[in-house]
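Input (structure):
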């Protein structure tokens, strides 16, 4: 029925952050919460649905958001925190937004696996550092960032894009929910 919405089915485990944890634990829990939220927004959809754009002229879509967040994880943790020279995953000089610009043949299976690998690598890189540790790499704007700032920025980045994901999911099949 038009105007009807359905509650989204969620199979991705998502733990609510503790209300009494210390700073680092809280930052890591909130980041993981938002990572899981994006995965939940993609559940139960096929690749064509995941490539469904929001509304013209934007071509923003759920698959593109997952690919974008894989790039963001790589950029902040590998490049800025660890100083790694890892190449971008999707973005190119010709199309710096190739992560968002999805085409037929781009799959969620590949994007999700890549995103999860970047998350795992990010966790490894952050595990041995203190929140005040400055990254070994330099951001393209020439600034240094400590791990605390990176965690806070990543939470903000996911929260903003999860808002986009809410709207995209509702447009695709009417599903709403956290």
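Output (sequence):
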């Amino acid at each position: 029925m038009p105007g009807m919405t359905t509650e989204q089915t969620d199979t991705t485990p998502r733990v609510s952050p503790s209300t009494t944890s210390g700073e680092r634990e809280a930052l890591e829990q909130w980041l993981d919460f938002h990572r899981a939220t994006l995965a939940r927004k993609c559940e139960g959809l096929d690749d064509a649905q995941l490539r469904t754009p929001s509304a013209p002229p934007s071509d923003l879509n759920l698959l593109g958001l997952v690919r974008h967040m894989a790039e963001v994880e790589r950029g902040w943790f590998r490049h800025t925190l660890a100083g790694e020279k890892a190449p971008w995953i999707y973005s190119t000089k010709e199309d710096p937004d190739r992560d968002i610009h999805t085409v037929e043949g781009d799959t969620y299976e590949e994007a999700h696996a890549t995103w999860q690998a970047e998350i795992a690598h990010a966790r490894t890189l952050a595990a041995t550092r203190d929140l005040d540790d400055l990254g070994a790499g330099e951001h393209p704007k020439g600034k240094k960032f400590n791990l605390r700032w990176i965690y806070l920025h990543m939470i903000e980045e996911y929260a903003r894009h999860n808002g986009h994901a809410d709207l995209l999911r509702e447009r695709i099949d009417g599903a709403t929910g956290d």
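Notes: The longest helix spans residues 147-173. The domain at 22-176 is CATH 1.20.120.450 (Four Helix Bundle (Hemerythrin (Met), subunit A)).
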